[in-house]
């Protein structure tokens, strides 16, 4: 069992509930898509599974361990086996793509090697290989701020592929890509998961992509699981109920812009 | 009512200015008297023929180098210690560490360089050691505070992402925070270096080495020609550093 949630809840600081009483178990090597309207709690669920936040209630088990019962050091060790793909990858604007990708292995490398890698990228072929899968090898030495949103998302994916975790969590990984590229990128992710026996959980706002690439689909609405079934059994009626009254525009993804440098003059 | 208050305030200010002149017994008449104007002209004229002899220029070069070294080492030390203090001061290690660090930075900053220099001359003896220490102490306070603010304004998400994939706190800082932060740190440090080179030339007046000390000695001995060339050297030094730091900012910070 790779992931198990038992009656898990997550409460925001303002007291509102992001997730309520979620029961979920995902076997090793499964590929699962999470769909649902904006604000349904998809990101919260992935943050919970990625040990970004502890559940406010219930029990969380990841890769056979309870992350919030572990010591800080053991939790960091567990996290090296978890890869989280962010919707807007938080990459420093001036960092080079090669450094951003190689940073995927920081949890596995020692301190000295990691610091050396900052001065000179130690595994350029490794980074280039992952980027090539995503058709981005030509941007190896570009700065992250020179890339478009979709390109940044692919850099984020390349970093996690380079990390080679056992559990791959993806929060709207292809939201800034055009349909063809999104399809291709999801195939790369799914193929990687299949070849390496990696468990893949991805939230998607495009239902067609979820049904096409993932054998199992979970519908989430208002912090609760509405349905959890094989992709073949998801029909129009279920989807209509899931997305009823949904606002049409998804919220704009947060973006880390280049921070303006203040230069005091006297 | 408001207008009356304004008028009263204005009258009070005027009275204060007049009272200040009366109290200080400033004699504006003497300032414009023809004899005194002549004296002033003579004094100024003696500055117009700077001493450019090789021996004096050599001494100035040595003094300029000393001033430059004082300001550079002082700023470098304060950038290092400022960053070390800025980390707790920005609240990264909890409130228990933040408050003492902020208090220390404020204390260092509140005492001006000249006072630090006067203190350090007693502690480290006459000469550039004292000046360097004085600059380092005051600038640590200034840079530490600026760095702490920059740290607080830096997005946390990149560092958090490194932590979430198992990276340690140090690596999260150097991979996630520093790449966003360093242009700002560099800009602040260069700016303070400009300030410090000006300050370094004044610190000599309390015996802390450099061009300032030369200027003080020559002025005290009424050697206006030598003092004049020292002042020209100071100007050249400040302009050169302004140009250098402006150029390096263009090159590294704006890009």
UniProtKB/TrEMBL annotation, chain A:
MF terms (GO), sorted A to Z: ATP binding; ATP hydrolysis activity
UniProt domain ABC transporter: residue ranges: 3-247
Domain of life: Bacteria
GO cellular component labels: plasma membrane
Keyword Cell inner membrane tagged: yes
Keyword Transcription listed: no
Subcellular location: Cell inner membrane
InterPro entries from the UniProt entry: AAA+_ATPase (IPR003593), ABC_transporter-like_ATP-bd (IPR003439), ABC_transporter-like_CS (IPR017871), MetN_ABC_transporter-like (IPR050086), P-loop_NTPase (IPR027417)
Stored SUPFAM superfamilies: P-loop containing nucleoside triphosphate hydrolases (SSF52540)
Topological type in the membrane: Peripheral membrane protein
Principal localisation: membrane
Pfam families linked: ABC_tran (PF00005)
Record keywords: ATP-binding, Cell inner membrane, Cell membrane, Membrane, Nucleotide-binding, Translocase, Transport
PANTHER family: AMINO ACID IMPORT ATP-BINDING PROTEIN (PTHR43166), PHOSPHONATES IMPORT ATP-BINDING PROTEIN PHNC (PTHR43166:SF6)
Name of the protein: Phosphonate transport system ATP-binding protein
Species: Pseudomonas kuykendallii
Classification lineage: Bacteria, Pseudomonadati, Pseudomonadota, Gammaproteobacteria, Pseudomonadales
From TrEMBL, chain B:
Compartments where found: Cell membrane
Location, primary (coarse class): membrane
Annotated SUPFAM superfamilies: MetI-like
Domain ABC transmembrane type-1: 64-243
Gene Ontology cellular-component terms listed: plasma membrane
Topology of this chain in the membrane: Multi-pass membrane protein
Gene3D superfamilies xrefs: MetI-like
UniProt GO MF annotations: ABC-type phosphonate transporter activity
Sequence intervals crossing the membrane: 68-91, 169-191, 197-217, 229-247
Keyword entries, A-Z: Cell membrane, Membrane, Transmembrane, Transmembrane helix, Transport
Pfam families: BPD_transp_1 (PF00528)
Entry's family note: Belongs to the binding-protein-dependent transport system permease family.
Stored NCBIfam families: PhnE
Protein's name in the database: Phosphonate transport system permease protein
Lineage: Bacteria, Pseudomonadati, Pseudomonadota, Gammaproteobacteria, Pseudomonadales
